[in-house]
Design goal:
The complex is a heterodimer of chains A (81) and B (197). Chain A has 81 residues and is mainly alpha-helical. Chain A has one domain. Chain A is built from four helices and no strands. Chain B is mainly α. Chain B has two domains: 100 residues, Orthogonal Bundle (Rna Polymerase Sigma Factor, Chain: A); 68 residues, Winged helix-like DNA-binding domain superfamily/Winged helix DNA-binding domain (Arc Repressor Mutant, subunit A, Orthogonal Bundle). In chain B, helix 3 crosses helix 4 and helix 6 crosses helix 9. The chains are: A mainly alpha (81), B mainly alpha (197).
Chain lengths: 81, 197
Protein backbone atom coordinates (compact mmCIF):
# COMPACT_ATOMS: atom_id res chain seq x y z
CA UNK A 1 0.00 0.00 0.00
CA UNK A 2 2.91 2.37 0.64
CA UNK A 3 3.59 2.28 -3.11
CA UNK A 4 0.10 3.65 -3.67
CA UNK A 5 0.80 6.40 -1.13
CA UNK A 6 3.87 7.36 -3.14
CA UNK A 7 1.83 7.34 -6.35
CA UNK A 8 -0.98 9.31 -4.69
CA UNK A 9 1.51 11.99 -3.67
CA UNK A 10 2.73 12.23 -7.24
CA UNK A 11 -0.70 12.15 -8.90
CA UNK A 12 0.10 8.87 -10.61
CA UNK A 13 -3.11 7.04 -9.79
CA UNK A 14 -6.20 6.80 -11.99
CA UNK A 15 -9.26 8.66 -10.62
CA UNK A 16 -10.93 5.64 -9.02
CA UNK A 17 -7.65 4.39 -7.59
CA UNK A 18 -6.81 7.82 -6.21
CA UNK A 19 -10.07 8.08 -4.28
CA UNK A 20 -9.63 4.60 -2.82
CA UNK A 21 -5.98 5.26 -1.92
CA UNK A 22 -6.92 8.58 -0.34
CA UNK A 23 -9.55 6.96 1.83
CA UNK A 24 -7.28 4.12 2.85
CA UNK A 25 -4.44 6.51 3.62
CA UNK A 26 -6.62 8.86 5.63
CA UNK A 27 -7.89 5.94 7.72
CA UNK A 28 -4.48 4.44 8.53
CA UNK A 29 -2.05 6.37 10.79
CA UNK A 30 0.97 4.52 9.38
CA UNK A 31 0.03 5.43 5.81
CA UNK A 32 -0.68 9.03 6.81
CA UNK A 33 2.79 9.20 8.29
CA UNK A 34 4.25 7.75 5.12
CA UNK A 35 2.44 10.36 3.00
CA UNK A 36 3.84 13.09 5.24
CA UNK A 37 7.37 11.68 5.33
CA UNK A 38 7.55 11.03 1.58
CA UNK A 39 6.57 14.66 1.06
CA UNK A 40 9.14 15.77 3.61
CA UNK A 41 11.88 13.81 1.81
CA UNK A 42 11.15 15.70 -1.40
CA UNK A 43 11.11 19.03 0.41
CA UNK A 44 14.43 18.24 2.10
CA UNK A 45 15.99 17.38 -1.24
CA UNK A 46 14.77 20.73 -2.53
CA UNK A 47 16.32 22.46 0.46
CA UNK A 48 13.55 22.74 3.04
CA UNK A 49 13.58 20.40 6.02
CA UNK A 50 11.14 22.17 8.31
CA UNK A 51 9.24 19.48 10.21
CA UNK A 52 5.45 19.25 10.18
CA UNK A 53 4.55 19.97 13.78
CA UNK A 54 0.84 19.60 13.27
CA UNK A 55 0.50 22.53 10.92
CA UNK A 56 -2.06 20.91 8.65
CA UNK A 57 -4.11 19.86 11.68
CA UNK A 58 -4.13 23.49 12.88
CA UNK A 59 -5.41 24.65 9.52
CA UNK A 60 -8.30 22.21 9.68
CA UNK A 61 -9.04 23.16 13.27
CA UNK A 62 -9.49 26.68 11.96
CA UNK A 63 -11.61 25.47 9.06
CA UNK A 64 -13.93 23.74 11.52
CA UNK A 65 -14.00 26.48 14.14
CA UNK A 66 -14.62 29.22 11.60
CA UNK A 67 -17.04 27.11 9.59
CA UNK A 68 -15.08 27.68 6.40
CA UNK A 69 -16.87 26.37 3.31
CA UNK A 70 -16.21 26.28 -0.39
CA UNK A 71 -17.94 29.42 -1.68
CA UNK A 72 -19.07 29.79 -5.25
CA UNK A 73 -18.09 33.23 -6.53
CA UNK A 74 -15.29 33.72 -4.00
CA UNK A 75 -12.04 34.73 -5.70
CA UNK A 76 -9.05 33.82 -3.50
CA UNK A 77 -6.69 35.65 -5.84
CA UNK A 78 -8.32 39.00 -5.11
CA UNK A 79 -6.18 41.06 -2.71
CA UNK A 80 -7.72 42.29 0.54
CA UNK A 81 -8.14 46.05 0.62
CA UNK B 1 8.26 19.63 -10.23
CA UNK B 2 6.19 18.63 -13.16
CA UNK B 3 2.91 19.47 -11.54
CA UNK B 4 0.62 20.59 -14.29
CA UNK B 5 -1.86 17.75 -13.91
CA UNK B 6 -0.61 15.72 -11.02
CA UNK B 7 -2.98 17.20 -8.46
CA UNK B 8 -6.00 17.19 -10.74
CA UNK B 9 -7.67 14.23 -9.08
CA UNK B 10 -7.12 15.44 -5.52
CA UNK B 11 -8.43 18.87 -6.53
CA UNK B 12 -11.47 17.35 -8.21
CA UNK B 13 -12.25 15.32 -5.09
CA UNK B 14 -11.74 18.38 -2.86
CA UNK B 15 -14.03 20.47 -5.06
CA UNK B 16 -16.65 17.74 -4.71
CA UNK B 17 -16.49 18.17 -0.93
CA UNK B 18 -13.89 15.57 0.08
CA UNK B 19 -12.00 17.37 2.85
CA UNK B 20 -9.42 14.58 3.05
CA UNK B 21 -8.34 15.39 -0.49
CA UNK B 22 -7.77 19.02 0.45
CA UNK B 23 -5.85 17.95 3.56
CA UNK B 24 -3.63 15.83 1.37
CA UNK B 25 -2.88 18.92 -0.72
CA UNK B 26 -2.15 20.96 2.41
CA UNK B 27 0.29 18.33 3.69
CA UNK B 28 1.93 18.16 0.31
CA UNK B 29 2.43 21.88 -0.20
CA UNK B 30 2.61 23.45 3.27
CA UNK B 31 6.42 23.63 3.42
CA UNK B 32 6.79 24.98 -0.09
CA UNK B 33 4.18 27.65 0.57
CA UNK B 34 5.77 28.49 3.95
CA UNK B 35 9.13 28.91 2.27
CA UNK B 36 7.56 31.22 -0.31
CA UNK B 37 5.75 33.29 2.33
CA UNK B 38 8.99 33.57 4.34
CA UNK B 39 10.41 35.53 1.42
CA UNK B 40 8.02 38.33 2.35
CA UNK B 41 7.29 38.05 6.06
CA UNK B 42 9.86 38.30 8.81
CA UNK B 43 8.26 36.81 11.94
CA UNK B 44 7.97 33.01 12.07
CA UNK B 45 4.57 33.15 13.77
CA UNK B 46 3.28 35.50 11.11
CA UNK B 47 4.56 33.17 8.38
CA UNK B 48 2.35 30.44 9.79
CA UNK B 49 -0.63 32.81 10.01
CA UNK B 50 -0.17 33.84 6.38
CA UNK B 51 0.20 30.22 5.26
CA UNK B 52 -2.94 29.28 7.17
CA UNK B 53 -4.79 32.20 5.58
CA UNK B 54 -3.51 31.09 2.18
CA UNK B 55 -4.91 27.59 2.52
CA UNK B 56 -8.18 28.83 3.97
CA UNK B 57 -8.60 31.25 1.09
CA UNK B 58 -7.77 28.46 -1.33
CA UNK B 59 -10.34 26.19 0.32
CA UNK B 60 -13.05 28.86 0.17
CA UNK B 61 -12.17 29.55 -3.45
CA UNK B 62 -11.80 25.98 -4.68
CA UNK B 63 -14.84 26.37 -6.94
CA UNK B 64 -13.03 29.12 -8.84
CA UNK B 65 -10.06 26.89 -9.65
CA UNK B 66 -10.59 25.80 -13.23
CA UNK B 67 -7.40 23.85 -13.74
CA UNK B 68 -5.98 26.11 -16.44
CA UNK B 69 -2.75 26.22 -14.43
CA UNK B 70 -1.22 23.75 -12.00
CA UNK B 71 -2.84 23.77 -8.56
CA UNK B 72 0.48 24.70 -6.95
CA UNK B 73 0.84 27.72 -9.25
CA UNK B 74 -2.64 28.88 -8.20
CA UNK B 75 -1.79 28.32 -4.53
CA UNK B 76 1.49 30.18 -4.97
CA UNK B 77 -0.34 33.22 -6.37
CA UNK B 78 -2.82 33.16 -3.48
CA UNK B 79 0.10 32.98 -1.04
CA UNK B 80 1.79 35.95 -2.71
CA UNK B 81 -1.36 38.06 -2.50
CA UNK B 82 -2.05 36.98 1.07
CA UNK B 83 1.50 37.87 2.10
CA UNK B 84 1.28 41.27 0.41
CA UNK B 85 -2.05 41.97 2.10
CA UNK B 86 -0.48 41.00 5.43
CA UNK B 87 2.36 43.44 4.83
CA UNK B 88 -0.11 46.23 4.12
CA UNK B 89 -1.68 45.59 7.51
CA UNK B 90 1.63 44.94 9.32
CA UNK B 91 4.27 47.08 7.62
CA UNK B 92 6.73 46.38 10.47
CA UNK B 93 6.81 42.73 9.41
CA UNK B 94 8.18 43.49 5.99
CA UNK B 95 11.28 41.62 4.91
CA UNK B 96 11.89 43.15 1.51
CA UNK B 97 10.47 46.65 1.78
CA UNK B 98 6.89 47.70 1.24
CA UNK B 99 7.24 48.52 -2.41
CA UNK B 100 9.50 45.64 -3.38
CA UNK B 101 8.36 44.17 -6.68
CA UNK B 102 7.23 40.56 -6.74
CA UNK B 103 10.07 39.69 -9.07
CA UNK B 104 12.56 40.66 -6.41
CA UNK B 105 10.77 38.46 -3.88
CA UNK B 106 10.89 35.52 -6.25
CA UNK B 107 14.65 35.85 -6.49
CA UNK B 108 15.16 36.21 -2.78
CA UNK B 109 16.28 33.17 -0.84
CA UNK B 110 15.48 33.48 2.85
CA UNK B 111 17.51 30.50 3.91
CA UNK B 112 15.99 28.63 6.81
CA UNK B 113 12.65 30.26 7.51
CA UNK B 114 12.56 29.22 11.14
CA UNK B 115 15.77 30.95 12.12
CA UNK B 116 13.89 32.62 14.98
CA UNK B 117 13.15 29.22 16.50
CA UNK B 118 16.37 27.41 17.44
CA UNK B 119 14.60 24.15 18.32
CA UNK B 120 12.82 23.92 14.98
CA UNK B 121 16.01 24.92 13.26
CA UNK B 122 17.93 22.13 15.02
CA UNK B 123 15.29 19.54 14.11
CA UNK B 124 15.35 20.74 10.51
CA UNK B 125 19.13 20.35 10.46
CA UNK B 126 18.93 16.81 11.90
CA UNK B 127 16.31 15.85 9.33
CA UNK B 128 18.39 17.23 6.48
CA UNK B 129 21.48 15.36 7.70
CA UNK B 130 19.55 12.09 8.07
CA UNK B 131 18.19 12.40 4.54
CA UNK B 132 21.66 13.09 3.17
CA UNK B 133 23.11 10.09 5.04
CA UNK B 134 20.34 7.85 3.71
CA UNK B 135 20.79 9.20 0.20
CA UNK B 136 24.48 8.33 0.33
CA UNK B 137 23.62 4.70 1.11
CA UNK B 138 20.84 4.41 -1.44
CA UNK B 139 21.30 2.26 -4.53
CA UNK B 140 22.42 4.64 -7.31
CA UNK B 141 19.56 3.78 -9.66
CA UNK B 142 17.01 4.55 -6.93
CA UNK B 143 18.73 7.81 -5.98
CA UNK B 144 18.90 8.82 -9.63
CA UNK B 145 15.15 8.33 -10.18
CA UNK B 146 14.27 10.17 -6.97
CA UNK B 147 16.56 13.12 -7.69
CA UNK B 148 15.33 13.44 -11.26
CA UNK B 149 11.77 13.63 -9.98
CA UNK B 150 12.10 15.67 -6.80
CA UNK B 151 14.99 17.98 -7.62
CA UNK B 152 15.08 18.17 -11.41
CA UNK B 153 11.28 18.20 -11.63
CA UNK B 154 11.11 15.65 -14.43
CA UNK B 155 7.79 13.89 -14.94
CA UNK B 156 7.68 10.12 -14.63
CA UNK B 157 7.37 9.58 -18.39
CA UNK B 158 10.41 11.73 -19.10
CA UNK B 159 12.47 9.90 -16.46
CA UNK B 160 11.47 6.61 -18.08
CA UNK B 161 12.68 7.91 -21.45
CA UNK B 162 15.92 9.30 -20.05
CA UNK B 163 16.80 6.11 -18.21
CA UNK B 164 15.43 3.73 -20.85
CA UNK B 165 13.18 1.91 -18.39
CA UNK B 166 9.41 1.31 -18.23
CA UNK B 167 7.35 3.90 -16.37
CA UNK B 168 6.33 1.20 -13.90
CA UNK B 169 9.99 0.83 -12.96
CA UNK B 170 10.22 4.58 -12.40
CA UNK B 171 7.25 4.32 -10.04
CA UNK B 172 8.81 1.53 -8.01
CA UNK B 173 12.28 3.11 -7.94
CA UNK B 174 10.93 6.39 -6.62
CA UNK B 175 8.81 4.56 -4.06
CA UNK B 176 11.71 2.33 -2.93
CA UNK B 177 13.98 5.36 -2.63
CA UNK B 178 11.43 7.20 -0.49
CA UNK B 179 10.81 4.15 1.66
CA UNK B 180 14.54 3.59 2.20
CA UNK B 181 15.00 7.19 3.32
CA UNK B 182 11.77 7.21 5.37
CA UNK B 183 12.92 4.19 7.40
CA UNK B 184 16.20 5.91 8.20
CA UNK B 185 14.39 9.09 9.13
CA UNK B 186 12.21 7.36 11.70
CA UNK B 187 14.71 7.56 14.58
CA UNK B 188 15.21 11.26 13.92
CA UNK B 189 11.73 12.31 13.09
CA UNK B 190 9.17 12.52 15.78
CA UNK B 191 6.24 11.84 13.53
CA UNK B 192 3.22 13.02 15.41
CA UNK B 193 0.92 10.06 15.59
CA UNK B 194 -2.07 12.08 16.55
CA UNK B 195 -2.03 14.50 13.67
CA UNK B 196 -4.67 14.17 10.99
CA UNK B 197 -2.17 13.62 8.15
Amino acid sequence: MSLKVSLLLDGQLAPGEAKAALEETAADPRLRDRYTVYGLVGDVLRGNSTPDDGFSARIFDRVRKEGVRIERGYDPLKRDE
Amino acid sequence: MAETDQDAELVRLAQAGDAKAFEALVVKYQRRIARHVARYVRATGDVEDVVQDTFIRAYRGLASFRGEAAFYSWLYRIATNTALSHLQREPGDVLLGDDAPEERAEAFDPGVSDAEDPERSLIAKQIAEAVQRALAKLQPELAEALMLYEVEGKPYAEIAGMLGIPIGTVRTRIFRAREFIAKRLEPVLDVQRNRRW
